[in-house]
Amino acid sequence: MATNRKPVLLRSEDPGKDQTFYLSQISQESLARTIFPLAPFTKSQVRQLAKSMLPRHIAEKPDSQGLCFVEPSNGRHFSTFLKDYLPEPKPAIVRLETGEVVGEHPSIWLATIGERSRLNFRLSQIRNPGGQWYVASKSVEPPSYTIVPGRDHPNLYCRSLIARGWRWIDKDENWTVSGLVAQVRHRAEPVGCTVEYVSEDNVRITFENEEGVYGVTPGQAVAIWLHDRCLGGGIIDRPS
């Protein structure tokens, strides 16, 4: 869609299939040459159209989940996919927030911040090894995970972050305004925020809710909107 002769990126009609998070760093020049023919439709409406135009085995094909070519049901697990592209990992130690080492994991690549730890069977030194433990932080060098008990642990939440490589879709506008919302994951609940520059292409995003945002992960994307208009995005550098 274009306003004042400039293209803008708006959320689609189907929140579950909205792709603006992934497109938040697109340039306005590229956006001007892009068409989204399915933007006004929900997935169910597209399926109805497909049933009237295509063979049934195509129209009723199941939705893909994440990477469509990584299918655990066919023996192609995400961990196997990663091993084809990442260097041979060193074993990673697993520690508590106190620094106490309680286990070891075969790879630093196979768990992310905010994810429920699958290491419970290794936590023999903890009084309640069967409890739910979550990854609060990780380090590549030396390879290590820090885990905390319970999904509501404060170390899993972040009140502000630094994003690098920040790009506004409309770089001629000043979008450090009120009314912004941010997301750090595709289907995350939008959270009110403020944006301020800390260097030429780095910004600080401060969340306005009291508890902060869950599972902020360096290396992943963050994007912001003003109402339904996606304004830009960058890569999470670190919590701040």
SS summary, helix count: 4
Distance between the termini: 35 Å
In spatial order, strands of the major sheet run 9-12-11-10-14-15
How many strands, what sense, and barrel or not for the largest sheet? 6 strands, antiparallel, barrel
Q: Mind telling me the CATH superfamily name of the largest domain?
A: Translation factors
Integer count of domains: 2
| CATH topology title of the largest domain | Elongation Factor Tu (Ef-tu), domain 3
Structural class: mainly beta
What oligomerization state is this entry in?
A: single chain
User: SSE order, as H and E?
Assistant: EEEHHHHEEEEEEEEEEEE
Tell me about this structure.
By secondary structure, the chain is mainly beta. It has two domains: 1-63 and 159-240, Beta Barrel (Elongation Factor Tu (Ef-tu), domain 3); 92-153, Roll (SH3 type barrels), CATH 2.30.30.280. It has four helices and 15 strands. It has helices spanning 28-31, 43-53, 56-59, 78-83; strands at 2-3, 6-7, 9-10, 92-96, 101-105, 133-139, 144-149, 157-158, 160-168, 180-183, 191-197, 203-207, 213-214, 221-226, 229-239. The chain has a six-stranded antiparallel beta barrel with strand order 9-12-11-10-14-15. The chain has a four-stranded mixed β-sheet with strand order 5-4-7-6, with no helix packed on it. The chain has a two-stranded antiparallel ribbon with strand order 1-2. The model has no long low-confidence stretch (mean pLDDT 86).
